[in-house]
Amino acid sequence: MMKMRDVAKYAGVSVATVSRVLKGDSNVKQSTKEKVLKAVKELNYVPNTLARNLSNMQSKKILVVVPKVSNSVFSSVFHGIQNVINENGYQVILIETFNRRDSSVPELIKDRTVEGAILLSAMMTEDEFEEKFQGLPVVLATDSLRERVRSTPSVSINNVQAAEKAVHYLANLGHRRIAYFGGRPDALGARERLEGYKKGFQQYGLQIDETLIFEGDWSLKSGYELAKQLMSQKKLPTAIFAVSDNMAIGAIRALSEQGVRIPEDISIVGFDNIAVSEYVTPALTTIEQPSVQIGEKAAEMLLKILSHQPLEQMHVEINSNLIIRNSCKRNNEILRKGG
Hints:
Blueprint: H1 4-11, H2 15-22, H3 30-43, H4 48-53, E1 61-66, H5 72-87, E2 91-96, H6 105-110, E3 116-119, H7 126-133, E4 138-140, H8 143-146, E5 154-157, H9 159-172, E6 178-182, H10 188-203, E7 213-215, H11 220-230, E8 239-242, H12 245-257, E9 267-272, E10 285-288, H13 291-306, E11 315-318, E12 321-323, H14 332-337
Parallel strand pairs: 1-2, 1-3, 3-4, 5-11, 6-7, 6-8, 8-9, 9-10
Antiparallel strand pairs: 10-12
Helix pairs in contact: 1-2, 1-3, 5-13, 9-10, 11-12
Pfam families: LacI, Peripla_BP_3
GO molecular function: DNA-binding transcription factor activity; transcription cis-regulatory region binding
InterPro entries: Cro/C1-type_HTH, HTH_LacI, LacI/GalR-like_sensor, Lambda_DNA-bd_dom_sf, Peripla_BP_I
């Protein structure tokens, strides 16, 4: 059976281009469109969309693809999805990928086991996305694909704005040397939060010290290791902004082992507002990512698509909130100097 990648190879174009032609995208050049349609005809390719339209059967099942259910952010998003999906008479099929590319997604789609999908994260290129999910209604609740598959509906927070909030809060407390514990630069969310960190500095007219910008992987261990690296510097910062609560909590552990007091010596702001952040010592000040709300909105959008209702917005951004607890303190020395 011919696949979309076979058409792409025959026509000498990408899988994404084939998908756009079959969807009737007017932005595709006429010459490219003709090449693709010729390949479709000569290979006798039948798109999954057409095959699916031959059947009026409704499975009432929704596929949710998640990297790791044990991750508290993903589990909260999934909880929000379930709330809405179950209330509307649908069932959820959950696939946990553990960030691997291989899964049983294609079989579920080919067999029309599911009517639509919500992706919480996905390690795939645009071509891989188009080939796996061709013809299937999809909503993204993930930063990783939002950048690459712009024509697909998505739900997220404004990462830039959220990071700015954290920097503004610390700057208003008198902090000027603020370290940044970030995620991998291949992740859009990590890049956006770094952008917000830098924008926050610029808005206060502060100098960015590149030696205080660290790259991690969102985990407890990563925050712990980055804090140990930080301790090797001659001049320590007065505050840390970590792009995940796990990293912030790992940093608190490492700093406490070195005799650094939180928040008396160094203030810390995290990101996510996971359940445990309220119960660590000191309770963590953090940017709340409304994960349940993200899941609910993604499910509502998918159900609208399935019932052929128009979406008010293709890309929805949900506001984040700063949750102030006990891990930050005024930097009185700077405030006295008026800096």
